[in-house]
Write a structure and sequence with these properties.
This protein has 363 residues and is of the alpha/beta class. The chain has 8 helices and 20 strands. Helix 1 packs parallel to helix 3. The two termini are 21 Å apart.
């Protein structure tokens, strides 16, 4: 019996690779260091009020007009979507001492995006449901990938219980952020200096960011003709959007303008107090007491970020396949959204990289 294809990483890209291989009758196994699937996809609900819905602390939406791969997959899986709320005025906050500016965007100024009912995790779960039981092994952190002169590939992994495991592979698909590959996995023979540099030069999408979601009984800002969109130079949140489910409760989510280092110095409790103060300043007293605050700082997630990711990104990264890479007759293949030259950093990029990785394997 031949060795399976080993996929390292159970984010959207890795899970989709496994689904595509399974549909072709090819045996595979997904190794995931976390205790859950999804990677940077993370949909959570309020601990005290789970009935209010699930909210995305990772990627939130996609654009059907520009992203055909995810649109097709969502339709194929029968998942429900709804249009992201953007109706109403946006707010500009130039400083805490200046009056808020209220603006109405011209019709058609923004491209319509859609969200998944139940959060993006519903996409992960639906793809994972196409896999045979036992395909994904959680709590399995790959530390070494070796290839001998005969082309036989062996992986070494640390397990959650402290034990170690050795796994033989027909080939390996690395569905991880390139910087995680470079910093956490040892290769024998070693990767070239040029390839290591290429991996390290690809910032991990979202790795330096944090996201907060304030949940309310209803989206009260809409009653005042506001879209929930804000651009702020006062902070701590720099960009705010409506995060309400398609019915019922209301929610606002924001990305931070303050650095990862500053967030860590302030601490979670202080950061969240500053967030509520800002939301109250922007949307009034009804924003002062959210039912729940969900918070995820990706910069301290060790399966997502390395030290270099705490440095803010000034320009959109140059994503695509690692440079100067020879896969040794397709024994090692790179996947993940950062390896997608088009739509890198997006869900669409993750899916495109999965299709490309499988196509490379099949050549």
């Amino acid at each position: 019996m031949s060795d399976p294809i080993i996929i390292v990483g159970a984010g959207l890209s890795g899970i989709r690779v496994a689904s595509l291989l399974t549909s072709k009758g090819i045996e595979c196994c997904v190794l995931e260091a976390r205790g859950r699937i999804g990677g940077r996809v993370l949909s959570e609900s309020s601990v005290d009020r789970p009935e209010l819905g699930k909210f995305d602390l990772g990627p939130t939406w996609f654009w059907p007009q520009q992203e055909p791969i995810i649109s097709s997959l969502v339709n194929e899986l029968g998942l429900q979507t709804f249009v992201q709320h953007t109706d109403g005025d946006i707010l500009l906050e130039r400083s805490q001492s200046q009056p808020l500016e209220r603006h109405k965007l011209p019709e058609g100024a923004t491209l319509s995006s859609v969200r998944l009912s139940g959060g993006v995790q519903s996409l992960i779960d639906a793809v994972a449901a196409t896999l045979p039981r036992g395909t994904v092994e959680l709590g399995t952190s790959v530390t070494t990938i070796s290839m001998d002169e005969a082309g036989k590939v062996t992986l070494e992994a640390d397990l959650a219980d402290g034990k170690k495991k050795s796994i033989r592979a027909r080939a390996v698909i690395l569905a991880l952020p390139p910087r995680i590959v470079a910093s956490r996995i040892a290769f024998s023979p070693p990767l070239s200096t040029q390839l290591m540099t290429s991996l390290q030069d690809k910032p991990t999408w979202m790795a330096g960011q944090a996201k907060v979601i304030a949940i309310y009984n209803r989206p009260f800002w809409r009653e005042d003709g506001l879209s929930g969109q804000v651009m702020s130079w006062a902070g701590p949140l720099q960009e705010i959007h409506d995060a309400s489910p398609d019915s019922g409760s209301g929610a606002l989510f924001g990305f931070f303008g303050i650095s990862a280092k500053m967030r860590q110095e302030l601490g979670k409790e202080r950061v969240l107090k500053l967030v509520v103060t800002q939301l109250t300043r922007l949307f009034g007293q009804l924003a002062e007491k959210p039912i729940s605050l969900l918070y995820k700082d990706w910069s301290i997630d060790t399966e997502t970020a390395v030290d270099e990711d705490s440095i803010p990104i000034s320009d959109f990264p140059n994503y695509g396949q690692p440079a100067n890479f020879s896969s040794g007759k397709k024994k090692i293949i790179f996947a993940g959204t950062e390896t997608s030259s088009e739509h890198g950093g997006h869900l669409e990029g993750a899916l495109r990289s999965a299709e490309r990785a499988v196509a490379e394997l099949m050549e």
